[in-house]
Amino acid sequence: MPSEKQEEAAVRVLGRWPSPYVIRVLIALNLKGVEHEMVAEPKGNKSELLLASNPVHKKIPVLIHNGRPISESLVILHTSTSAWASQAPAILPSDPHARAAERFWAQYVDDKFPTAIRVLRGRVVGDKEEAAAEVSAALWQLEGAFVECGGGKGYFGSDGVGYLDIALGSHVGWIRAVERINGVSLLDAAKVPRLAAWADRLCAHPAVVDVLPDVDRFIEFSVQNDGALAKPVDEASK
Amino acid sequence: MAEKGVKVFGMWASPMAIRLEWALRLKSVVYEYVDEDLGNKSDALLRYNPVTKKVPVLVHDGKPVVESAIIVEYIDEAWKDGYPIMPADPYERAQARFWANFADEKDLNGFVQCNAAVYPVFTATGEAQGKVVHEAQQCLKTLEKALEGKKFFGGDAVGYLDLVVGWYAYWLPIIEEVSGASVVTDEELPLMKAWFDRFLAVDVVKETLPPRDKLLALNTARREQLLTA
């Protein structure tokens, strides 16, 4: 149950800006109108706070609320729904079937996009054509899901930006960046018209606009950081 | 097209499908079980789950839900006045979800999480087995922390996390027997071992477990197949 205390318990997010998983948390907190502080994790050494807050994975993002840490972006999204349940909007729909559908597609997003995008960034070595094809195929599936979930309105969430919008939307920065870096079209208005329009709409949304910077910044980050880290793709990561 | 009722599309030896049965029985929901031949999937299954084509699938009044952990949560929400599966407190819920992910998924960097650490025990042989067993034990030791001071992961009674990792209690000893490995021992994983016994004694679990000899035979054959491939 949401706390009745008006005292603004510190809400902190441990993270770093180009991470889609961090972006998710920031969008959710913005949507809920929750005041928060982003604590930037330094590159290289992990902070003591991070190691103490997420000892199992030692990864960002971590949400610290009322002194208690919560890790994993989708878990944090769920927590935002319940911890600030009295504040609109609801991030997940109320219908159990609709909730299950959004959860399924969010899991699908995290299954299909991260590795392919890292290949396309040049962050790990891999077949770029194959990676682009994987992203396109996944977007095509999600184009169908868009109609199912949102009922043909502007977002996956039937009432506005919701869980799945955030889960997929957080990848849009990098999707657009790798489009430019590789000269490919993924969020292609001809192939996935609804998603292409949705991406523009989402990026302009007040809760998103400040935390999903312009594609040029993603490209700049990639140029500065990804080349140096390219390494052979691990056989275990499919 | 008002198709009413609850159907589970599963496979008798699938630890993922059994999660649904446990959840439905905790809620006292009557369901029809459709046992799929995974080498020859039914048209119905492919129609209900065109994206991943996998079992299990829950069909509730004609509408499908896929992915077993997601389905368990769906069952909890759709029959919200029944047995409480998810913890009530949001922070406890976050912990339960976190540990369920730790057990089930491979993380984005290909870091092995529990299921991915346990599967290799099935086929590892010789020297490699020692290393693989150790990794599996490390994962399970981390997971075991969520049991400290409790009868079940859910507290005094079984909850979401028990249903998600419960398959270890029955399937792991079989994997150990088939492969000759020893993973969950009193010395290495005392809390986990004790929880295995408690979990297997729960009514809805006892009622649904597939026959041990059949499961043992299937896994023995599968292991031989994989090793000689």
From TrEMBL, chain A:
Signal peptide location: none
Domain GST C-terminal: 95-229
Domain GST N-terminal: 9-88
GO cellular component, one term: cytoplasm
Reaction equations catalysed: RX + glutathione = an S-substituted glutathione + a halide anion + H(+)
UniProtKB keywords: Transferase
GO molecular function, one term: glutathione transferase activity
GO biological process entries: glutathione metabolic process; toxin catabolic process
SUPFAM superfamilies xrefs: GST C-terminal domain-like (SSF47616), Thioredoxin-like (SSF52833)
Enzyme Commission number(s) from the entry: 2.5.1.18
Recorded family membership: Belongs to the GST superfamily. Tau family.
PANTHER family per UniProt: GLUTATHIONE S-TRANSFERASE, GST, SUPERFAMILY, GST DOMAIN CONTAINING (PTHR11260), GLUTATHIONE TRANSFERASE (PTHR11260:SF788)
Name of the molecule in the record: glutathione transferase
Organism listed in the record: Brachypodium distachyon
